[in-house]
Amino acid sequence: MRDRSSVILIQEGKVALIKRVFEGDMYYVFPGGGVDPGETPEQAARREAFEELGVEVEVQALVAVVEHNGTQFFFSAQLLSGEIGTGRGEEFTNLKRDRGTYEPMWIDIAQLQQVNVKPREVAEKV
Protein backbone atom coordinates (compact mmCIF):
# COMPACT_ATOMS: atom_id res chain seq x y z
CA MET A 1 0.00 0.00 0.00
CA ARG A 2 1.00 3.62 -0.54
CA ASP A 3 2.05 5.80 2.39
CA ARG A 4 -0.03 8.92 2.99
CA SER A 5 0.60 12.29 4.58
CA SER A 6 -1.88 14.81 6.00
CA VAL A 7 -1.96 18.19 7.69
CA ILE A 8 -3.73 19.23 10.87
CA LEU A 9 -4.39 22.90 10.26
CA ILE A 10 -5.95 24.81 13.17
CA GLN A 11 -6.88 28.48 13.13
CA GLU A 12 -9.13 30.48 15.47
CA GLY A 13 -10.53 27.38 17.19
CA LYS A 14 -11.33 25.60 13.93
CA VAL A 15 -9.67 22.75 12.07
CA ALA A 16 -9.54 22.37 8.28
CA LEU A 17 -11.17 19.14 7.12
CA ILE A 18 -12.42 17.62 3.89
CA LYS A 19 -16.07 16.57 3.96
CA ARG A 20 -16.40 13.40 1.91
CA VAL A 21 -19.48 11.71 0.53
CA PHE A 22 -18.59 8.39 -1.05
CA GLU A 23 -20.80 5.38 -1.75
CA GLY A 24 -23.55 6.74 0.49
CA ASP A 25 -21.28 7.45 3.47
CA MET A 26 -20.55 10.96 4.78
CA TYR A 27 -17.39 11.51 6.78
CA TYR A 28 -14.55 13.98 7.28
CA VAL A 29 -10.82 13.51 6.73
CA PHE A 30 -7.73 15.57 7.34
CA PRO A 31 -6.41 17.07 4.08
CA GLY A 32 -3.77 14.83 2.60
CA GLY A 33 -2.88 12.13 0.16
CA GLY A 34 -0.25 9.79 -1.14
CA VAL A 35 3.47 10.31 -0.73
CA ASP A 36 5.02 10.37 -4.21
CA PRO A 37 8.27 8.53 -5.00
CA GLY A 38 11.27 10.63 -3.92
CA GLU A 39 9.09 12.82 -1.69
CA THR A 40 9.30 13.02 2.10
CA PRO A 41 6.11 12.79 4.17
CA GLU A 42 6.58 16.48 5.09
CA GLN A 43 6.85 17.49 1.43
CA ALA A 44 3.76 15.44 0.59
CA ALA A 45 1.79 17.11 3.41
CA ARG A 46 2.72 20.56 2.08
CA ARG A 47 1.83 19.63 -1.52
CA GLU A 48 -1.45 18.02 -0.53
CA ALA A 49 -2.49 21.07 1.52
CA PHE A 50 -2.05 23.16 -1.62
CA GLU A 51 -3.83 20.69 -3.91
CA GLU A 52 -6.77 19.91 -1.61
CA LEU A 53 -7.22 23.19 0.25
CA GLY A 54 -5.54 25.82 -1.93
CA VAL A 55 -3.22 27.00 0.85
CA GLU A 56 0.51 27.18 1.47
CA VAL A 57 1.46 25.80 4.88
CA GLU A 58 4.52 25.39 7.03
CA VAL A 59 4.65 21.78 8.17
CA GLN A 60 5.53 21.57 11.85
CA ALA A 61 5.48 18.61 14.24
CA LEU A 62 4.55 15.01 13.57
CA VAL A 63 1.38 14.50 15.63
CA ALA A 64 0.42 10.93 14.80
CA VAL A 65 1.37 7.89 12.75
CA VAL A 66 -1.44 5.48 11.88
CA GLU A 67 -0.97 2.11 10.21
CA HIS A 68 -3.89 1.51 7.86
CA ASN A 69 -3.35 0.45 4.24
CA GLY A 70 0.22 1.69 4.60
CA THR A 71 1.66 4.29 6.94
CA GLN A 72 -0.27 7.54 7.43
CA PHE A 73 1.59 10.58 8.79
CA PHE A 74 -0.28 13.49 10.38
CA PHE A 75 1.56 16.80 10.82
CA SER A 76 0.52 20.00 12.55
CA ALA A 77 0.81 22.90 10.13
CA GLN A 78 0.62 26.67 10.12
CA LEU A 79 -1.28 28.56 7.43
CA LEU A 80 1.04 30.86 5.46
CA SER A 81 -1.17 32.03 2.58
CA GLY A 82 -4.14 31.14 0.44
CA GLU A 83 -7.82 30.52 1.03
CA ILE A 84 -9.47 27.24 2.05
CA GLY A 85 -11.61 25.95 -0.79
CA THR A 86 -9.42 27.06 -3.69
CA GLY A 87 -7.54 23.80 -4.17
CA ARG A 88 -7.19 22.49 -7.70
CA GLY A 89 -6.00 18.95 -7.15
CA GLU A 90 -7.20 15.94 -9.11
CA GLU A 91 -10.09 15.55 -6.64
CA PHE A 92 -11.64 18.71 -8.12
CA THR A 93 -10.48 18.63 -11.74
CA ASN A 94 -10.82 14.98 -12.83
CA LEU A 95 -14.56 14.53 -13.20
CA LYS A 96 -14.10 10.89 -14.34
CA ARG A 97 -12.34 9.93 -11.10
CA ASP A 98 -15.59 8.69 -9.47
CA ARG A 99 -14.35 8.87 -5.87
CA GLY A 100 -17.28 10.81 -4.40
CA THR A 101 -17.31 14.45 -3.34
CA TYR A 102 -14.64 16.53 -1.62
CA GLU A 103 -15.63 19.70 0.21
CA PRO A 104 -12.91 21.60 2.11
CA MET A 105 -14.20 23.44 5.19
CA TRP A 106 -13.44 24.72 8.65
CA ILE A 107 -15.03 22.80 11.55
CA ASP A 108 -15.12 24.03 15.16
CA ILE A 109 -12.78 21.90 17.22
CA ALA A 110 -15.60 21.47 19.75
CA GLN A 111 -17.63 19.69 17.02
CA LEU A 112 -15.00 17.05 16.27
CA GLN A 113 -16.56 14.63 18.76
CA GLN A 114 -19.97 14.94 17.07
CA VAL A 115 -18.91 14.32 13.46
CA ASN A 116 -17.51 11.22 11.79
CA VAL A 117 -13.81 12.11 11.42
CA LYS A 118 -11.42 9.48 10.09
CA PRO A 119 -9.18 8.38 11.61
CA ARG A 120 -10.93 8.91 14.96
CA GLU A 121 -7.71 8.49 16.97
CA VAL A 122 -6.20 11.55 15.25
CA ALA A 123 -9.36 13.64 15.79
CA GLU A 124 -9.17 12.79 19.48
CA LYS A 125 -5.62 14.19 19.64
CA VAL A 126 -6.80 17.51 18.20
Description of the structure:
By secondary structure, the chain is α+β, with helices and mostly antiparallel strands. The chain has a single domain, classed as Alpha-Beta Complex (Nucleoside Triphosphate Pyrophosphohydrolase), CATH 3.90.79. It contains three helices and eight strands; from the N terminus they run ββββαββαββα. The chain has helices spanning 41-53, 90-93, 120-125, and strands at 4-11, 14-22, 25-29, 32-34, 55-67, 71-82, 101-108, 117-118. A hairpin with a 2-residue loop joins strand 2 (14-22) and strand 3.
Brief overview:
By secondary structure, this protein is an alpha+beta fold. Helix content is 18%, strand content 48%.
